[in-house]
Request: fold
Amino acid sequence: MIAELGHYALMLALGLALIQGSMPILGARSNDPVLMSIAAPAALAQFAFVATAFAALAICYVTSDFSVLNVYENSNSTMPLIYRLTSVWGNHEGSMMLWVFILAFFGALVAAFGGNLPAVLKANALGVQAWIAAAFHLFILTTSNPFLRLVEAPFEGRDLNPILQDPGLAFHPPLLYLGYVGFSIAFSFAIAALLEGRIDAAWARWVRPWVLGAWMCLTLGIAGGSYWAYYELGWGGFWFWDPVENASLMPWLAGTALLHSAVVMEKRGALKVWTILLAILAFSLSLIGTFLVRSGVLTSVHAFAVDPRRGIFILAILMVFIGGALLLYAVRAPLLKQGGLFAPISREGALVLNNLFLTTACATVFVGTLYPLALEALTGEKISVGPPFFNMTFGPLLAPLLLIMPFGPLLGWKRGDLAGAAQRLFAAAALGIVAVAAALALQHGGPVLAPFGIGLAVFVMAGALVDIAERTMFLRVPFAAALRRAAGLPRSAWGTALAHFGIGVTVFGIVAVTAWSSERVAALKPGDTLDVAHYRLTFDGLFNRAGPNYRDLVGHFTVRRASGDLLGAMEPSRRTFPARNMATTEAALMTRRVSQLYLSIGDPNPDGAIPVRLYFKPQVLMIWLGAVIMFIGGALSLSDRRLRIGAPRAAKSRASLQAAE
Amino acid sequence: MASLRVLLPAMTICLSLLAVVSASLPLAAVEPNETLANPTLEARARTLSKELRCMVCQNQSIDDSEAPLAHDLRVLVRERLKAGDSDAEVMDFLVARYGEFVLLKPRLSWHTALLWGLPPAALVIGMTLALALVRRRRMAPAVPEPNLTPAEEARLSDLLRD
Reply:
C-alpha cells in the first residue's frame, strides 16, 4: 500500500510539473498575472508530492518490505537502521528519487523565498525548473521505477553492497546532489533571462546565493567522497581521475568560474553574456555527469548490463536540455546589452583570468573523460586516458591560477594598481620563498617540483591573510582600531579570504602527500616489525570479531615511535559479509596532527603470514581540511547581509534602485 | 555480477572503483612477493606500473589493482627490467602485446591530436578572446553614470557596503 501510494504521488508530481512548466511560461509571454501566479503554488505542491513519494520509499526500506523489488535487491533486515535508510539512495532507482527530491526541494525554495523576484522572471524560471523535473519524473516512471512489487515476497533481502555500508553513504550522495541539482536553479534563471531577452546586474544578485550554496555542497560532497575512497579502498589514494570523479569535478570547476563571473556581473554589470553561458554549462555538466554514471557508457569489464533504454532516455534529456539551452543562447545572447568598462589590470581583469584558467581546466577534464568514449564510438579504437594524462595537463593550468589568485582581491574595480598589489603581497611572496627553501632543505629525493608546489600553497594562504590585513589596516593603525575594522568587515570579505585560504591548505596537502608519502609492503608473522617514516609497527596477531551483519578478521598492531615511545594500537581488518559473500578491506588510520599512518591487511597466506601495506601520509588531512575551510568561507559569504537582503525580502525602493545601477 | 548494476548509487565518487574491490581477492595492488630486491629497479617498476592500465579494471593502473591480470603485468614489467630493458623498451613491449589501450597516458599521434591539442588550444583561444573583449571595452565610449537622488545614493551605499 505504501509503495503504491509513493508511485501514485510520483505520477501526480509529474502532472503538476507539466502544469508548472506550461501555464506560467504562457502567462509570462502574454503578461497574464493569473497564469504566472500558478508557478509558485505548483512548485510547492510538486515538492509535497515528490517528498511523499520519497518518504514512501524510505518507509519501505526502514520496515524492510521485501515485497518491493528495489528493497529486496538492496537491503537486508539485519543491517543497522542507518544503513537501511541510506540504502534508499544506494542504488540506481533510489538515487534518481533523491535527485528529483532535491530538484523539487530547490524549486519549492525559489517559490517560497522568491517573493521579491520580478513576476516574469520567477514564472519563467520555475517553468524551466519544472521541465527538468518533468523529464526526470518521466525517466523514473518509465525506466527506473523503485516501487515495483514482487509477486511473492522473499523472507530476506539481498543486502546492500558492503562497500556502501559506511557512514559516507549518508552524507556523500546527498551533498553531491545538492550541488549538482543546485546548479539547476542558475540554469533555470539563465534560460528565463534568455526567454525574456532581458538581463541586468540584479539577476546576478538573485542567482549568486543559489550558486554559492550549490558550490558549497559540491565542495564538501567531493571532498567527502575523496576521503571515503581514501579510507575504504585500502591503498590510500585520494583522487583517481576516474570518470565518475571527473563527472563531479567538471561542474565544480564550471561552478567556481560562475561564482566569480557573477560577482563581476553584479558589481560592474559586465560579463553578462559569459555568466549566462557558464550558468548553462555548470548544470549541463551536472547532467552529463548523470548520463556518464547512469547510462553505463563507461568502459567496464563488469558490463553492468544496464538497460539500454535508460542510457537512451538520459541521452535524450541531455540533448533536449543542453542542445535547447545552447540554441536559445546562440539566438538570444547577442541581444543582451553589455555594460561595464574596465582596464586589463583590474579586479574584473583578474576574474576574467580566473575564468579563463578554470574553464580551460574544465575543458581539459571534459576532453580527457569523453575522448576515449568518442574515439571508440567513432573509430573502434580503444585508448586509455588516466591519471598521468590529467596530472600532466591539469597541473600546469592550476599553477598560474594559484599564482594570480592572491592578486585579485587586492586590485581595485575598473582600474587596478598591479605594482601596489605586488608590493602588498611582498610579505606573502617572501613566506612562499622561505617555504620553498625549507622544503628543498628538508626533502631528500622527492620530486623536484614539490617544494615549489609547497611555496605556491603557502603564497596562496599568506595572500588570503594579506587581503584581510589590508582591509583592516593591520599594523598601520593601532591594534584595537584594526580589530574594530575587522569586526566591521562584510562577511563576504571574510568568506572570500577564508575560501582562498582553504584552497592553499588543500594544495599544500595534495603536494605534500603526493611527493613525500612513504610506503612499505611486506608479509608479516606475529612478532614481526615494520618501519615507516619515524614509526615502528609490531604485528601482534590476528583475532576474529563479529559485527551486526559481518565478520571481521582483525590484525592487531602496536605502534611506537622510532625512539620506542608507545603511541597506541592499530586494528585493520578484512570484513566479510555473509549475505553477499563479499569482503572489504577496512584500513586502520592513526592521525598524527594532520598526517596519518595508514595500514591495511590482506587475506592470510598459507604459511600464516599476512600481507600488509603500511603508509605514512604526511599532511594528508589538509586536503579535506581545506575543503571544509572553503565550505565555511562560502557559508560566511552566504550569511552576508547583502546576499540576505538580495534573497528573501526587499524594500519597495529596490526596483527603482536596480534600474539605476 | 549482473546485479552489480543496481547496487551502484548514482554519482557517488569512485563507485565504479569501489565495485571492483568488492571482488574478494587478496590485498590491493603490489604484493610482498612481487617486489624486486634491487631498489632502483623496483622504483622504476613502480613508476612504470603507475602508467599502465589494468585492462580488466574500470580505471586502475596495474600498480593499484588487485586483479590477477594486474599481478601478471607487474611481474612481467619486473622481468623485462631485470632482463635489462630500458623504460621505453618495456612500454614498447607492452604496447606491442596489448595495444595502446594499456597506456594510461596515450601517445601523441593523429588519433590523439585533439586530446592533447585541446587544452593548450582552449587556453590560447580563450586568452585571445579575453584580450579582444578588454580592448574593445576600452575603445567603447564611456556610458555616462546615471544620476541618483541623494536618498537613492544613501540606500545604494547601504546595500553595496564593501
